[in-house]
Amino acid sequence: MIQIQSFTFNPFQENTFILYNEHKEAIIIDPGMYDKTEQQVFFDFIEKEQIKPILLLNTHTHLDHIFGNAAVLRKFQIPSTFHELDKPVFNAASSTCALYNLNFEKAPEPSYYTNINDTLLLGEDEFQLFLTPGHSPGSICIYHAKQAFVIAGDVLFQMSIGRSDLPGGNHKSLIQSIHTSLMPLPDHTKVYCGHGPSTTIGIERMNNPFLH
């Protein structure tokens, strides 16, 4: 049984996730901790719950989703990964932060690039990875069929969709990604979004104004 713990961090109010199993093995997704205070909140939870991170996974590499990468990798010495198509976004993070006058600690290069054709494993739990470009070139979503949830990054939000006006974004590709990869999922599938509250595929299929 996968437990999902979420935190909302940084000036962009980004959602950071920890997925962990009954053995306390965990995947950290999009660590967005901006300062030492947020890092302490995050690490205190992991220590309190005796969680053992085994992987850092970025749904994409916009700065608000990777603020905490360096701190996580320094503390836990675990592999990290994102899709190779997002490498230009990752490379631009420092200069992007400078534009916003934000502090940023450059994170190490990924240990490997995510292969969409592979199954991601956490113990005996399997996750399917979807390449869902449009918000960024290498955006991915992580789907757990057994418990019917998807970590959607900034692809799909409650009654909204991700921005496509940032470098590497494409509105047509984003809409196609949502219709091709996410809308075929069962209605009851819970969607954990990169910003804002969670939703379900059924609610968004029926009501999201950007999808009609």
Distance between the termini: 35 Å
User: Main β-sheet: number of strands, strand sense, barrel status?
Assistant: 6 strands, mixed
**Contiguous helical run count:** 7
Number of strands: 14
The mean pLDDT is 97
Query: Numbering strands along the chain, what is their spatial order in the largest sheet?
Result: 1-2-3-4-5-6
SS class: alpha/beta
Strand content: 25-35%
What letter string, H or E per element, gives the SSE order? EEEHEHHEHHEEEEEEEHEEH
The percent of residues in helical segments reads 25-40%
Radius of gyration: 16 Å
**Apparent shape:** globular
Stretches where pLDDT is under 50 for at least 5 consecutive residues are none
Key words describing this protein structure:
globular
Structure description:
The structure is a single chain. The protein is α/β, with parallel strands linked by helices and 212 residues long. It is 27% helix and 27% strand. The chain contains 7 helices and 14 strands. It has helices spanning 36-48, 63-66, 69-76, 87-91, 93-100, 171-182, 201-207, and strands at residues 3-9, 14-20, 25-29, 52-57, 80-82, 112-113, 119-122, 125-131, 140-144, 149-151, 156-157, 160-161, 190-192, 199-200. The longest helix is centred in the first third of the chain and has 13 residues, at 36-48. The mean pLDDT is 97.
